[in-house]
Amino acid sequence: MEGDKANGGGGGDVVLLNCFVSPFGNRVKIALARKGVAYEEKSENLAAKSPLLLSSNPVHAKIPVLLVGGKAVSESLVILEFVEEVFSSAGEPLLPGDPYARAQARFWASYIDTKLPECAKRVWQSPKGAAAAEEGKRDMVAVLNTLEAELGGKPYFGGEAFGYVDVALVPFAPWFTTYERLGGFSVAAECPALAAWAARCVRENECVAASLPEAESVFQFVCGMRKHFGLD
Ligand code: GS8
After folding, report:
1. How many Å apart are CA 221 and CA 96, to the nearest integer?
2. Are residues 132 and 193 in the same domain?
3. For ligand 1, atom 16, which residue shows the shortest CA distance?
4. Are strands 65-68 and 71-74 parallel, antiparallel or unpaired?
5. Ligand 1 contacts CB of residue 75 (under 6 A)
6. Residue 220: which domain range?
7. What beta strand segments (E) does the chain contain?
8. Which of 1, 66, 202, 222 could serve as a FRET partner for 46 with CA atoms 20 to 30 Å apart?
């Protein structure tokens, strides 16, 4: 199937159902790359979902789904923790060892999931000039400001090391250009520390650089969707 590829040289036992622009699916790619897990990526057309996707995530019928030895795990944050537990590596754990710090990391990942995709949709799925797009932009800037304040002066959300909250948020970074162009704002101007953090994540972590699409290809994908749905 076109768009499918093997990462890390084969991997038959581990399969990721994904769509190349998906921030959720790309979280899983980062987690697998961090662990050096070989896997096969199967690209889903979400307008015509495969029988494999429908049978492996019958509750939500959404990507990402990770299949390991034929067993399916869904929901990206759940998959991140599963990958962490199942595949060992010499690297630092994604979640901190301290229970309070771990709870904080889960809190921020949950904040991202509750807030960001919803405003993002209003920015990129609203007709040009609609009030919903303007409100989506306003709410998105507020969410990004909250994340910027939480990041503070640290290099990563958890402190010195790239970790769970970084994996949860950084796959949205290739979408920033799309939000900026459609929303008419600048992430770097509104949230300079967050923009610097996104660049740092890519620059200093091969697992991130290898797992994310180009911002321009996300924008082109979104333009195609908007055209298809008559939004432009
Ligand atoms: C969200 C997955 C999701 O929205 C997670 O895995 O964290 N909470 C889930 N997947 C989307 C594609 S990315 O925007 C999806 O599969 N949509 C298909 C549909 O809604 O039919």
Report:
1. 36
2. yes
3. 62
4. antiparallel
5. yes
6. 99-228
7. 5-7, 14-18, 39-43, 65-68, 71-74
8. 202
